[in-house]
Amino acid sequence: MIKLILRQDYDPLGKVGEIISVKDGFARNFLIPQRIGIQATPANMKIFEEEQKQVQKRLNKDKQSSEKMAKEFESLSLTATVAVGEEDKVFGSVTAQMVSDLLKVKGFDIDKRKILLDEPIKALGVYNIPVKLHSEVEANVRVWVVKE
Questions:
Q1: Under 8 Å between Cβ of 145 and 94
Q2: Alpha-carbon distances, residue 103 vs 13, 17, 121, 146 (angstroms)
Q3: Complete domains list, the chain, with CATH
Q4: pLDDT tens for residues 64-106?
Q5: pTM (two decimals)
């Protein structure tokens, strides 16, 4: 048996940072080459702790920039023009891709998968659409759907 420090979550064994005991062959042939774990020596423990501090700093920085962007999004207003027929019936719909394109025009490069639109918008009006900027930060973007 060999002791390893998990460098990433691995469901059958545990979470990041846990010290586990596994068979030598499993560690040597799978966990260490896949960079899932490293041998639990005092030197590796220090290296791992330093890596975790760096990761935590980066995550905090990302979260702060996402919170700043969320404040900008709250004051942002987008206008989507759509073709309409009789009785203001919309042809097509406003999708997450269209919202992403409107955000690009305003200078924000947001992936369409981060725009949490339950279903495409198929009517005129004003909508607050949630956008996931970070795992802990979500902002609403106001989208006006108007006719051409």
A1: yes
A2: 42, 38, 16, 17
A3: 2-62 (3.40.5.10), 69-147 (3.10.430.100)
A4: 888 888 888 888 888 888 888 888 788 888 888 998 898 888 8
A5: 0.65
